């Protein structure tokens, strides 16, 4: 494990950057495919632009979120704020940044936010899986010490290695990678079912919140909101919001059914 993939003199290609590039390429291809299938009036170029805008907005939001929760350190070390290669991207901040960019984009192009969010949800969770591999090679987003046979000792120069030395740790980034791929497979398999707009996106929010909540129990570097882990708080709020949206839409659909129509048994 090493954060650097290749070095050409002063130029270094890092796994972090490579994983974001792969996530953007695969995500753009999947999004364009879904946009075309769902009949959303966007060109292929617009789909690719959306991926790039959301990726940049997500990275910025993830960094701002992380820095805000660790301001006691970054306030005294402002030069470290842009150093994302040292770790420190919070996924919930990334979701906020990506959604805000998405709202701006749909208003500009006059398309449905919920339809576009449904089309992009599988791309997002698969991109997160690639990102977790970047975390693994970088040695951040690491877990707590473990005696399990799959515990990993991270290199001394990595963030995990500097904190725990030669102690085996839970490879939490790999746990989440596997669970994210499973979530992608699930969302991809059910995306064509005749659910209302926003259902797939809300399903993504619920599934990922469950994944993140589970993995958080094994994380050693999480953010805190008082005595509570911030990812747990954010995940509960997302589950309530997404679940509430789904229930509201289901109840609305039931009210929209004419009273004279026989009920299904």
Description:
This protein has one domain. The protein has 265 residues and is mainly alpha-helical. The protein has a two-stranded antiparallel sheet with strand order 1-2. A two-stranded antiparallel sheet has the order 3-4. Helix 7 runs antiparallel to helix 8. Helices cover 64% and strands 5% of the residues. A hairpin with a 2-residue loop joins strand 3 and strand 4.
> Can you give the mean pLDDT?
90
Using the alpha-carbon principal axes, give the shape.
globular
Bin the helical content: 55-70%
Q: For the record, give the distance between the C-alpha atoms at the N and C termini, rounded to a whole number.
A: 57 Å
Helix/strand/pairing class, anyone? mainly alpha
Strand share of the residues? under 5%
Order of helical and strand elements: EEHHHHHHHHEEH
Largest sheet: 2 strands, antiparallel
Widest sheet: strand ordering: 1-2
Oligomer: single chain
Task: Please compute the radius of gyration using only Cα atoms.
Answer: 20 Å
What would you say about this model in short?
With 265 residues, the protein is mainly alpha-helical.
What are the SSEs and their pairings?
Elements: E1 4-8, E2 11-14, H1 15-38, H2 44-69, H3 71-74, H4 91-109, H5 113-138, H6 159-164, H7 172-190, H8 199-216, E3 224-225, E4 228-229, H9 230-256
Antiparallel strand pairs: 1-2, 3-4
Helix pairs in contact: 1-2, 1-5, 2-4, 5-7, 5-8, 7-8, 8-9
Describe the structure using short key phrases.
64% helix, 5% strand, 265 residues, two-stranded antiparallel ribbon, 9 helices, mainly alpha
């Amino acid at each position: 494990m090493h954060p650097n993939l290749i070095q050409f003199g002063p130029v270094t290609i890092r796994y972090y950057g490579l994983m974001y590039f792969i996530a953007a390429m695969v995500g753009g291809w999947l999004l364009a495919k879904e946009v075309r299938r769902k009949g959303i009036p966007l060109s292929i170029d617009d789909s690719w632009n959306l991926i790039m805008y959301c990726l940049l907005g997500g990275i910025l939001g993830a960094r701002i979120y992380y820095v805000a929760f660790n301001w006691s350190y970054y306030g005294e070390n402002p030069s470290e704020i842009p150093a994302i290669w040292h770790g420190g991207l919070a996924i919930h901040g990334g979701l906020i940044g990506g959604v805000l960019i998405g709202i701006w984009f749909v208003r500009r192009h006059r398309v449905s936010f919920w339809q576009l969010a449904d089309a992009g949800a599988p791309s997002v969770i698969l991109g997160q899986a690639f990102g977790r591999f970047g975390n693994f090679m970088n040695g951040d987003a690491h877990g707590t010490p473990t005696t399990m046979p799959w515990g990993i000792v991270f290199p001394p120069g990595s963030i995990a290695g500097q904190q725990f030395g030669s102690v085996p740790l839970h490879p939490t980034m790999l746990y989440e990678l596997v669970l994210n791929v499973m979530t992608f497979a699930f969302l991809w398999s059910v995306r064509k079912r005749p659910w209302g707009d926003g259902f797939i996106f809300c399903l993504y929010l619920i599934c990922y919140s469950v994944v993140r909540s589970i993995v958080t129990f094994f994380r050693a570097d999480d953010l805190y909101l008082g005595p509570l882990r911030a990812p747990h708080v954010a995940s509960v709020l997302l589950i309530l919001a997404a679940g509430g949206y789904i229930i509201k839409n289901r109840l609305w659909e039931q009210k929209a059914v004419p009273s004279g129509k026989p009920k299904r048994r």
